[in-house]
Structure formats: structure tokens, C-alpha cells
Amino acid sequence: MAPDSIRIHSAAWVVPVDGAPIRNGGVAEKDGMLLEVGETARLGRQYPGATVNEHRRMALTPALVNAHIHLELSHLAALAASPLDTAFTGWINRLLQLRDRLGATGELAEQAARRIAENQYRSGIGLLADIGNTGIGRSLAASFPGQLLPFAEYLGLAERSLAKNMQRLAQEDDAALCSGHAPYSTHPRLLRRLKERARTLGHVFPIHTAEPAAEGEMIREGRGEMVEFIRQRGFWDGSFVPRGSGGTIHYFRDLGLLDSRTLCIHAIHVTDEEIRIMAGEGVKVCLCPGSNQFLRTGTPPVRAYLDHGMLPALGTDSSASNPRLSLWREMRLLAMAHPAVQAAEIFRMATLGGAQALGMDRHLGTLAAGKKADLLAVPLPEDVENEEQLYRFLVEHGEQAELDRILQ
Question: Among 180, 362, 352, which residue's Cα sits nearest to residue 262?
């Protein structure tokens, strides 16, 4: 291996994520892949003649992973411009009305989505999972500098829409990523078929899970705010059969949706028993603190997930339900709401947790030999002198730092 083709990036701190931060550390890289991570002095001896780039008073970290966003809703940011004064279903009504007025596609929607995607990359996102009902996400995937996974989202709870959705799904290319929207909006037989397809193709299966409390009431009893909303929309045809007990996770288990490639988005209103079920099946979770705060849907049981060996991912959700799409802000909001959760655990959620949730942890999420060399250089204040201070700064103040992207 020619030394002049190797680059060493050194910094005050290197944050591998899957191990302790390394003071006066560095990473050795060749052709966009990491060769080794360790102390700069040792790397210099191991790779004599390598080009050394110094990043003084900075921390080198992996790129972040935003495991849940709706880029096609970016032009509906007016919905989150002021505090919400209605229930969850009232917000959905406003979203549908505004989208009908502005259009679901077209130049306005496409430009807004492109702008948000670009901002995501500039803010440190290396991997982005987009959920959409249009082709906007797919069209942006090719130009996104990092990696963008576009999932086509299927909706339709009424029996009359089932055959059409099944036919559409059968015509999808095997490379296409597909998901169900939510248990309150997607027919159970369609959910089962979507999951069967994802399992056969080895795809991740994201689905909105236990976001509003009214979802549980619908699943258990077939009544409540969500049912009234669906009835008003003309989609409640009596074909949905309530369980009588249990919640969303029990419902998903009955449908055969739970395994290690199922990604439950939000997962706020779940019981300890349901968390045990999720952990036993290897289910992944993506938390969206900013959206939850705006929509007032509740606070997820973060500590319980961690105690059951689950490392949640983080997502921003969309501009329609979150006034600022920054994964750094999501970390800060989570830290404020859960002071017992350590900053190091939160930073792992924003990196390794997201990579695991999207099945990409062999390539991203940590700094280790053989992984993609997509790095962030985050400026540090002079008073960061130990590991605890380092992680606290990244989680609480990372959003204000003027970070650099390395090895683009």
C-alpha cells in the first residue's frame, strides 16, 4: 500500500462511538475507507509518509444518521410555524388541506425538498431515510451527497382500496423500498403483504407506531378520536376488527410484522410488556423528539428501551411537524426531556443507532477499520477536557458548532 495514498486526520479528540473517545487521536483513510483508528502518534509510525491533516481543537466523529424524514412535506412548513392549538387529528386535517391547496408535487414541493435535503447533509447527515407518497424522495436519492433511502409509503385502511394497493405493490421493482404508513391508516392485509415483501427482499420496514394515544384506543376498542377522524374522511367501513386488549405492538405481532428489520417510528405509547416483545424480536425504534414536542403526542420511554438492550435511532420527521430539522436539536431535546440518559448514549443513537435501524451499520455509524470515511470535524471549546464534557458538548451545543465535512 503506497504511503502517499494514505491520509491521516488528527484531532484533539476522536469519537469512534463504539469505544471510548481517543484524546490526541486520528484516523487513517485510503480511497474513502477507514484503515485504522487510534492515537495519532501510533498511526504516524504505522503509516510513515502518509499525508497528515490536523484538525486542532476539534472532535472527529462519524456522520450522523437521520432515520426518519418526509422530504415531500418540506413545503408545508407553515404548519409548524406557530404552536399547535388542535389535537393530532386536527393537525392531520390541516396538513391535508394545505397540501391540497399547494399541491403534493410540483416545483414548490420539489425545491423545498431539495433545500431540506441539502441542509441535512450540510448539518452532518450522512444517511437519510425518507418516507413519501410521491416520487420526490426517489428523485433526490441520486443527487444526495451521502446516502438517501427513499421508502414508498402505502396508505389505505378501507377494504375498497386493498385490491388496488396490492396490485400496485406487486408491480414495484424489487429494488424499491416500501413501507406502511401506520396501523390506523393502512389495511392489516396490506401491512402483512408489505412486511412479507420486505422480509423476502431483505429490506428494512419502517412504520409509524404508537404515535398518538388515540391509535391504541382504535386498536383495542374500535372507537375514539382516530376512528371519528377516519369516519369523517369516509374510510371507516367496518372492516377493521379491534383486538379488545393490548396495543399497537401486540397488533403488529398478530400480523407477523415484528423482526430485526422492522423500524417502529415514534413508539411513544407502548407498555413494558410491549417493549419486552420488541426487544425479543430485535425490533428497532426511531425517536423523533422535536415532532413529538410540537404535536404534543407524548414522551417515549427512552430509559426503558435502553434498559432492554435497545439502542433507538433518531429522526427529525418533517417540516410540517417540526419547526427546525436538525438532528443536533433532536439530541438536545432528548437530553432535556431525559436527564437520566447519558450524553454518550444519546450520541450513539444519532450515529450507530440510526445505522443499525437502517441496516447500514456495517458501513456507517462508527469509526472503525473497513467503514466509510464520512467524518465530521466539530470545533470544541477550550474547556472540554474529558469524555463526559466532550459528549455533553456534542449533544447540548453541537447544533451551534460550525462543523466541517471531511472526505466528501
Answer: 180
* DSSP letter, residue 205: E
Contacts of the segment 397-402: beta carbons below 8 A, 24+ positions apart: 398/328, 398/331, 398/332, 399/326, 399/328, 399/329, 399/332
User: What is the structure's pLDDT at 1?
Assistant: 47
Residue partners of 117: CB distance under 8 A and separation at least 6: 71, 128, 140, 144, 148
pLDDT over threshold 70, residue 356: yes
List all residues 6 or more positions away from 33 whose beta carbon is below 8 Å from its beta carbon: 370, 371, 372, 373
Domains in the chain, please, with CATH?
A: 3-62+365-406 (2.30.40.10), 64-357 (3.20.20.140)
Q: Treating both helix axes as pointing N-terminal to C-terminal, what angle do 213-221 and 248-255 enclose, rounded to 10 degrees?
A: 60
Q: Is the pLDDT of residue 82 over 50?
A: yes
pLDDT digits (tens, 9 = 90+) for 106-146: 999 999 999 999 999 999 999 999 999 999 999 999 999 99
Please report the pLDDT score of residue 402 as a whole number. Answer: 86
Q: Do the beta carbons of residue 225 and residue 232 sit within 8 Å?
A: no
CA atoms of 15 and 37, how far apart (whole Å): 10
- 232-245, pLDDT tens digit by residue? 999 999 899 999 99
Q: Are the beta carbons of 33 and 371 closer than 8 angstroms?
A: yes
How many angstroms separate the CA atoms of 245 and 8, rounded?
57
Percent of the chain residues past pLDDT 90, beyond the cut? 96
b/e burial code for range 81-90 (CB count within 10 A of at least 16 → b) = eeebeebbbe
Q: Is 227 helix (H, G, I), strand (E, B) or coil?
A: helix
The mean of the pLDDT values for the chain is: 96
What distances in angstroms separate CA 165 from CA 121, 156, 160, 169, one per listed residue? 33, 8, 10, 6
Q: How many degrees, rounded to 5, is the angle at CA 403 between CA 400 and CA 405?
A: 150
